[in-house]
Amino acid sequence: MPIALTGCGVGAIGQAAVVDDKGADSVRSSFDRPIAVGAAVRPEIRYALRGAGAPAMHYEVADESILTADDGTIRGKAPGLTSLLLVSDDGVVLDFFHLWVKEPTSVSLGQVMSDDKLVELGGRVDLMRGETLRLSATLRGEGQDLGGEAEDRWKMEGKAAQILEEGRSGRRRIVAVEPGKSLLEVRILDRIAKLEIQAVDSKEVALGDLY
What we know:
The protein is mainly β. It contains one helix and 22 strands. Strands 13, 14, 16, 17, 19 and 20 form a six-stranded antiparallel β-sheet that branches. A hairpin with a 5-residue loop joins β1 (about 10) and β2.
């Protein structure tokens, strides 16, 4: 019986799939990209077992030097490839996934659009006073998107903008509060991204448009 979940991380046997990142027009699994070393994933598992509901199960990892699994949380430990087994509590292997773990090399900052898609930002943005910018910070490994969540720290230097919590890991709202410059620093694990924010007054923009 196939799993009717398009765009999901489907197990090798085809009896389970992972769905844990749902955008406005897409469903993405963190298993469809490498897990960052030091990051954690708590996957949502869906099953397609003929004549059965969701089983009592746990995770087992083939090589625990690369990946660990504890209390439903998968954590990247070292670069490499290993298998994650979904095992019923009576010892039956229900399905398994081959997972890569990769060392993160950078943090990417993206603007979260109204449809929840991300637009990658450069080193600077201009905001009108009172304007809000939704940001997402994610780990990358040599330019490749990495999965998993890790502790993220956001710091703003300067009074032109402020950081607002959004209630989701890796997401914040930036609000321009007064004309001037601020520097945003985002640190995930030991990787850092910076964004210069220039806040302007609507009167300044209107006068500038005249010349």
